[in-house]
Amino acid sequence: MTALPSTRAAGHDHPLEGARVLVTGGTGSLGGALVRRLLAGDLGRPETIIVFSRDEAKQHDMRLAIARRAAATDEVIYGGWDRILRFHIGDVADPAAIRRALRGADAVFNAAALKQVPNCEYFPEQAVRTNIHGPEQIVRAIGEGIARPGVVVGVSTDKACKPVNVMGMTKALQERVFIAANLDSPGTRFVAARYGNVMASRGSVIPLFLDQIASGGPVTITTPEMTRFLMTLDQAVDAVFAALRHAAPGEIFVPSVPAARVTDLAAALIDGRPIPTRITGIRPGEKIHEILVSDEEGRRTIRRGDYLAICPMLPELTADPIVAEPLDREVSSADNLVDLDGVRATLRTAGFLTEEPAR
Q1: What per-residue confidence (pLDDT) applies to 286?
Q2: Where are the domains of the chain?
Q3: Which of 261, 253, 297 is nearest to 162 (CA)?
Q4: CA angle 143, 145, 147 (to 5 degrees)
Q5: pLDDT, tens only, 183-215
Q6: Is the pLDDT of residue 113 over 70?
Q7: Contact, 308 vs 246, CB < 8 A?
Q8: How many angstroms separate the CA atoms of 284 and 119, rounded?
Q9: What pLDDT is recorded for position 8?
Q10: CB distance 280 to 263 below 8 Å
Q11: Residue 320's closest CA among 272, 264, 248?
């Protein structure tokens, strides 16, 4: 295969052409979208894509869903998928399983996660196992020479910034585990992509609202002040791919995305119908506003094209001075909110609203 880009300056159009790619958590919302984009050749045509997860039913469903794509354009894009795609069952925190999946990998996307906030609060040891010990096992195996991938991309979340819940705390430590790994495995570039709420991902609010609306309500809103970033799965994959292409060792790539009040999300989806709403109170571990870049991180955050790059804290990884003007501020979902019409437009673009709103 051709060499993967080792720094942000590399401009290879197809960095994964002929590569062996491992996607942990490959049957999750983000992992599945990432695999489909890899099959579509967004980064070149890989030799092998290994989908690694611990849910055999989701792997079976994914295999069937890809095999049944019948449109001509899909046949062109997905042709030969059965020669490219491989499925491995295993737990990312299991050393033997992750070592077996890692062998020969040229690139790794770590999308495996325990990510639902309340579940992580009630089962924190499981969140630690998946979100921290899993990355540790990847780093350890690479450090011991089981594989020498050119790049590892950790998939993170806005909840890792100023974390107040177990999910965010464990994801913040995942970021640090991968950043520090650059010191012990200099042949591999460890980077991360951090983004906000993905519309329609498992456990997110939009599928919940749609189910409640279909049942006649009420639509449950935790608190009227709550805001969230809004992005599609494809935008999330774009952020992960941008980190692979352009992030320097230890950098965290953050996309610029809109944010909205959850009450406006509910109103846009209800769309004038007589569906009641009910305030239920904040769930365990929830924030009122999410943050993508903290004020402390802002001092070492620079703009890189359409993304923000948070430079690593470790001085060994920041030998070159930051020459671009730093962001020097916090990026919160309470900032630059789109109005109700903007929410409707965003939902329409994402396919959740198909008609003009009721007047």
Answers
A1: 85
A2: 20-349
A3: 297
A4: 100
A5: 999 999 999 999 998 887 766 788 899 999 999
A6: yes
A7: no
A8: 9
A9: 38
A10: no
A11: 248
What angle, rounded to 10 degrees, do the helices at 29-39 and 56-67 form? 30
Three-state SS string across the chain, please?
CCCCCCCCCCCCCCCCCCCEEEEECCCCHHHHHHHHHHHCCECECCCEEEEEECCHHHHHHHHHHHHCCCCHHHHHHHCCHHHHEEEEECCCCCHHHHHHHHCCCCEEEECCCCCCHHHHHHCHHHHHHHHHHHHHHHHHHHHCCCCCCCEEEEEEEHHHCCCCCHHHHHHHHHHHHHHHHHHHCCCCEEEEEEECCECCCCCCHHHHHHHHHHCCCCEEECCCCCEEECECHHHHHHHHHHHHHHCCCCCEEEECCCEEEHHHHHHHHHCCCCCCEEECCCCCCCCCCCEEECHHHHCCEEEECCEEEECCCCHHHCCCCCCCCCCCCCEECCCCECCHHHHHHHHHHCCCCCCCCCC
253-284 pLDDT, tens digit each: 999 999 999 999 999 999 999 999 999 998 88
- Predicted pLDDT of residue 354: 75
Task: Tell me the pTM.
Answer: 0.90
- The verdict on whether omega for the bond into residue 258 sits within 30 degrees of 0, i.e. cis, is no
pLDDT tens track for 13-28: 899 999 999 999 999 9
Would strands 227-229 and 259-261 be described as parallel, antiparallel, or unpaired? Answer: antiparallel
Q: Which CATH superfamily is domain 20-349 in?
A: NAD(P)-binding Rossmann-like Domain (3.40.50.720)
List active site positions: 159
Token pair in block for residue 234: 């494809």
Residue partners of 298: CB distance under 8 A and separation at least 6: 326, 327, 328, 329, 330, 331
Q: Which two tokens stand for residue 322?
A: 């930051």
**Token pair of 244 as six digits:** 């692979």
Which pLDDT tens digit goes with each residue over 223-242?
A: 999 999 999 999 999 999 99
